[in-house]
UniProtKB/TrEMBL annotation:
Tree of life domain: Eukaryota
Encoding gene, per UniProt annotation: LOC120036647
Keywords from the named record: Antiport, Cell membrane, Glycoprotein, Membrane, Transmembrane, Transmembrane helix, Transport
Transmembrane parts of this sequence: 33-56, 238-258, 265-283, 318-339, 359-381, 461-488, 509-531, 571-590, 610-630, 650-683
Protein name in UniProt: Choline transporter-like protein
C-alpha cells in the first residue's frame, strides 16, 4: 500500500478514486485506545473476581451430599460411599414447627448416612429384633448404619440404636437424586403385603406415609435457590453437554464441506426439505388435534409442569402448533415464489464465496479457534458462577429429632449453633434425640453480601468477552477476504499468510474498536436480560397496560440489538479495510449501504436468510437429539446417565442448543463474512472505479456476472 485516499467528509458522499489504493491499509495507528484500556481493566477485574470466588466457594456443596457430621459423601474418607440415605425418612413428613423454624424448612430432621449405593430391596426389622437380648449385628446392615457405630463391638440394644437413629428400621428400593437416595415410587406400588411398619395398620398406610415424606423432602429441595438447582444440573450433565457441543461442531464442519462443493444442490435441498418438514408437521399436528378433539382436558386446567408430555395431551397445544406451522409454511412458499430469481443469484454469490474460501482454505480453520475461545469464556463463566453460588461456610444448629412437647427437649429451641465434628450429644442428657444438623450457608461475610453484584458483573464480563471474540473473528476474516478482493491479479497477489497477517494487525491496532462495538452490544443485551427478568417476576401481578408496555420495550430492544449487530458487522469490515475508529467506520459503512439500499435488501439479506436456515438446521438436529437424550427417551446401558438426576432437563437441552447455535454461528460466519465483505467491497469498487483503463474494476468477471453489472472495459485478471 503506497498511500490511501482521504475519505469524503460529508455524510453520504461516495469515496473518490485513489490510484494508490489496493486493499486493506497497512500503515495504521491504534484506534479507540480508551475503550481498549477499559476492556483490559475489566478482564483483570474478572480474573481477580474468579480468584476470590475460588477462595471462598466450594462446588462440593452442589456436587456431593453431606452426612450428619457435615462430611461429603464420595469425597475423602467417604470416597467409596457416594450416596446418602435418611435413617428415618418418615420424619421428613412430621417436622415440628420448632424444627421447621430452626432448619428453615430445607432439611430433613433425621440422621443422614453415606452409603456405597442406594437400597434395592424391601427390608424391615423383624419382631424378634426388639427382644432385649437380641444381638444388633444379626438384624442391622452395617453399610446403612452410622459410621460411629460398630455392630460387632457395640453394647447397645436394638431399641437404643433406633432411639439414637444410628441405623434404619426399614429400607425400600431407592433411586439416587442429587446423590440422595429417595424411595422409588414405582417400587412402592409393588410393596410386599407384610411390609407394615410398627404403629401402622396396613401396607397401604406405610406406603402413603413414605410418599408423604418424599413430598415434604422434595418440597424442601424446591425451596432452594433456582440458581443452585440449575448449577446442580450443570454439575451432573456437563460432560454430556460437551459431547452435544462436539456433535454440533462435527455437523457444522460437514455442512461447510458440502457447501464448499455442492452449494446450489445443498441450498435447494434445504429449501425443499423445509417445505417437506413443514408439510409433515402440519399433517402430524392435524392428526393429533383430531385424536384429542373429544378430550375435555383444557390448557387452563394444567399447572406448570417440567414434563412436556403433559401439555401434549391437550388439543389446544396441537391447534397452536398447527396454526404456527401453517403460517410458517405459507410465508416460506410466498418468499420462495417472490424471490425465486434472487435466490438463484444468492446461490451464485455463495458459490463465488466458496471459490474465494477455496483460495483461502485457512479461513475454514479459524472457527475452531473461535470455538476454543468461546468454550473458554463459557467454562470460566460457569465455574465462576458455581464458585460464587457455593461461597460461604455451612452453618449447623442444635435440633431435637423428637416432639418437644413430649419431654424436656422443649428447652432446645433450635437457635443454638454447633459444629458436627465436635458436637457431643451427652451435653444434653435430658434430650437423647438431640442432633447437630445443617441449617444453611453463611451469608454474613462481605463477599457473600455482595454476591448479587458479583453475579451481575460476571454476566456483564462474560457477554463482553463473548462479543469481543466474535468481533475479533469477524474483523480478521473481513480483512482476509478484502485482501483477496482488492488483489488485481488473483490469486497471484494473495499472500499465503493473509489470515495470520490480518489477525496480528487486528490485535495490534484495533482491540479498542472491537471492544467498543462489543460493549455497545453487551449493554443492549443486559437491558434485554433485565426486561426478561422483570417479565418473569411480574407476570402474574401486572395489569394489561403494564404487560403491553413491557412487551413493547422487549420488542424495541430486540430490534435495536439486531440492528446493532448488522451495524457492528459492517463497521468491522470497514475497520479491516481502512483501519479507522469504530464510530467513523460505522458511519461510513452505514452511508455506503444506504446509497445502495436496493441491492442490500434484495440480495445481501437473501444470502443471510439462506445461511440462517443452515444454522437452524444444525441447531434443530442437535436440539432434537439432546431433547430425546436428556428427557430420558434415549437411555444408555447401565447407570452412565439417568434423566431422573436432573432438576430441570430443559437446562442442558437449552445449553446444548445455545452452544450449538454459537458453534454454527462461528463456522457459518466464514461464508457470511465472505459474502458481506465481497458485497461491501463490490459497492466500494463501483464508487471508486468505472471499468475504464484509468479506473479498472477489481471485481472478478464471475462476480460481475452474478451482480448483473454491465461489462466494463477492464476488470481484475481472472482467477
Amino acid at each position: 500500500m503506497k498511500g490511501t485516499s482521504k475519505r469524503a467528509e460529508e455524510k453520504g458522499y461516495a469515496a473518490p478514486y485513489d490510484p494508490f489504493f489496493s486493499g486493506p491499509v497497512r500503515k495504521r495507528s491504534c484506534t479507540d485506545l480508551i475503550c481498549c484500556i477499559l476492556f483490559l481493566a475489566v478482564i483483570a477485574g474478572y480474573m481477580v473476581m474468579g480468584v476470590l470466588a475460588w477462595l471462598f466457594g466450594d462446588p462440593r456443596h452442589v456436587l456431593f451430599p453431606r452426612n450428619s457430621t457435615g462430611m461429603f459423601c464420595g469425597v475423602g474418607m467417604n470416597r467409596d460411599q457416594p450416596r446418602m440415605i435418611y435413617v428415618d425418612i418418615l420424619k421428613c413428613a412430621t417436622t415440628t414447627k420448632v424444627m421447621a423454624a430452626a432448619l428453615g424448612g430445607i432439611q430433613c430432621p433425621t440422621t443422614q448416612v453415606c452409603v456405597p449405593k442406594c437400597p434395592s430391596h424391601f427390608w424391615m426389622l423383624s419382631a424378634a429384633a426388639y427382644d432385649p437380648d437380641a444381638n444388633p449385628k444379626d438384624f442391622f446392615h452395617q453399610q446403612y448404619c452410622d459410621h460411629s457405630l460398630n455392630l460387632t463391638t457395640t453394647t447397645w440394644t436394638v431399641q437404643e440404636i433406633l432411639d439414637a437413629e444410628l441405623c434404619p428400621s426399614f429400607l425400600v428400593p431407592s433411586k439416587s437424586a442429587l446423590g440422595r437416595c429417595l424411595p422409588s415410587l414405582h417400587a412402592l406400588k409393588s410393596a410386599p403385603s407384610n411390609f407394615t411398619l410398627p404403629g401402622m395398620a396396613s401396607v397401604n398406610e406405610t406406603v402413603n406415609s413414605i410418599r408423604s415424606a418424599m413430598g415434604s423432602l422434595i418440597s424442601g429441595f424446591n425451596r432452594k435457590a433456582i440458581g443452585v438447582r440449575i448449577f446442580e444440573d450443570f454439575a451432573s450433565s456437563w460432560y454430556w453437554i460437551l459431547l452435544g457441543l462436539t456433535l454440533a461442531l462435527l455437523v457444522s464442519v460437514v455442512f461447510m464441506l458440502l457447501l464448499r462443493y455442492l452449494a446450489i444442490v445443498l441450498v435447494w435441498i434445504l429449501m425443499v426439505g423445509l417445505l417437506v418438514v413443514g408439510g409433515y408437521g402440519i399433517w402430524h399436528c392435524y392428526t393429533e388435534y383430531y385424536h384429542f378433539s373429544t378430550s375435555k382436558l383444557k390448557f387452563g386446567d394444567l399447572s406448570f409442569n417440567t414434563n412436556i408430555s403433559v401439555y401434549l395431551q391437550v388439543k389446544e397445544t396441537w391447534l397452536a402448533f398447527l396454526i404456527i406451522l401453517c403460517v410458517w409454511e405459507s410465508i416460506l412458499i410466498l418468499v420462495l415464489s417472490c424471490l425465486r430469481r434472487r435466490l438463484s443469484v444468492a446461490v451464485a454469490l455463495m458459490e463465488e464465496s466458496s471459490r474465494v474460501v477455496g483460495y483461502l482454505m485457512s479461513t475454514l480453520l479459524y472457527p475452531l479457534f473461535t470455538f476454543v475461545l468461546l468454550v473458554v469464556c463459557v467454562a470460566y463463566w460457569g465455574m465462576t458462577s458455581l464458585y460464587l453460588v457455593t461461597s460461604g461456610a455451612p452453618l449447623y444448629r442444635v435440633v431435637s429429632l423428637s416432639d418437644p412437647s413430649v419431654d424436656k427437649c422443649s428447652l432446645i429451641n433450635g437457635s443454638e449453633t454447633c459444629k458436627p465434628q465436635t458436637f457431643n450429644s451427652s451435653a444434653y442428657p435430658y434430650c437423647p434425640s438431640v442432633r447437630c444438623i445443617f441449617f444453611k450457608y453463611d451469608d454474613t461475610g462481605l463477599f457473600q453480601q455482595n454476591l448479587v453484584y458479583l453475579q451481575v458483573f460476571n454476566v456483564f464480563a462474560f457477554l463482553w468477552c463473548v462479543n469481543f471474540v466474535i468481533a475479533l473473528g469477524q474483523c480478521t476474516l473481513a480483512g482476509t477476504f478484502a485482501s483477496y478482493y482488492w488483489a488485481f491479479s488473483k490469486p497471484a497477489e494473495i499472500s499465503p499468510f493473509a489470515l495470520s497477517q490480518c489477525f496480528i494487525r487486528t490485535l495490534q491496532y484495533h482491540v479498542g474498536s472491537l471492544a467498543f462495538g462489543a460493549l455497545l452490544l453487551t449493554c443492549f443485551q443486559l437491558v434485554r436480560l433485565v426486561l426478561e427478568y422483570l417479565n418473569r417476576k411480574t407476570r402474574g401481578s401486572q395489569n394489561a397496560c403494564g404487560r403491553f408496555l413491557l412487551n413493547c420495550l422487549r420488542c424495541c430492544f430486540w430490534c435495536l440489538e439486531y440492528f446493532l449487530k448488522i451495524l457492528n458487522r459492517n463497521a468491522y469490515i470497514m475497520i479491516a479495510i481502512y483501519g479507522e475508529s469504530f464510530c467513523v467506520s460505522a458511519k461510513n459503512a452505514y452511508s455506503l449501504l444506504m446509497r445502495h439500499i436496493g441491492r442490500v435488501v434484495l440480495l445481501d439479506r437473501v444470502t443471510d436468510m439462506l445461511i440462517f436456515f443452515g444454522k437452524l438446521l444444525v441447531v434443530a438436529l442437535v436440539g432434537v437429539l439432546a431433547f430425546f437424550f436428556f428427557s430420558g427417551q434415549i437411555r444408555l446401558p447401565g447407570d452412565t446417565f439417568q434423566a431422573e438426576m436432573l432438576n430441570y432437563y430443559w437446562v442442558p437441552i437449552l445449553t446444548v442448543m445455545a452452544g450449538a447455535y454459537l458453534i454454527a454461528q462461528g463456522f457459518f460466519s466464514v461464508y457470511s463474512m465472505c459474502i458481506d465483505t465481497l458485497f461491501l467491497c463490490f459497492l466500494e469498487d463501483l464508487e471508486r472505479n468505472d471499468g475504464t483503463m484509468q479506473k479498472p474494476y477489481y471485481m472478478s468477471r464471475n462476480l460481475m456476472r452474478i451482480l448483473r453489472k454491465p461489462k466494463p472495459f477492464v476488470t481484475a485478471l481472472p482467477e
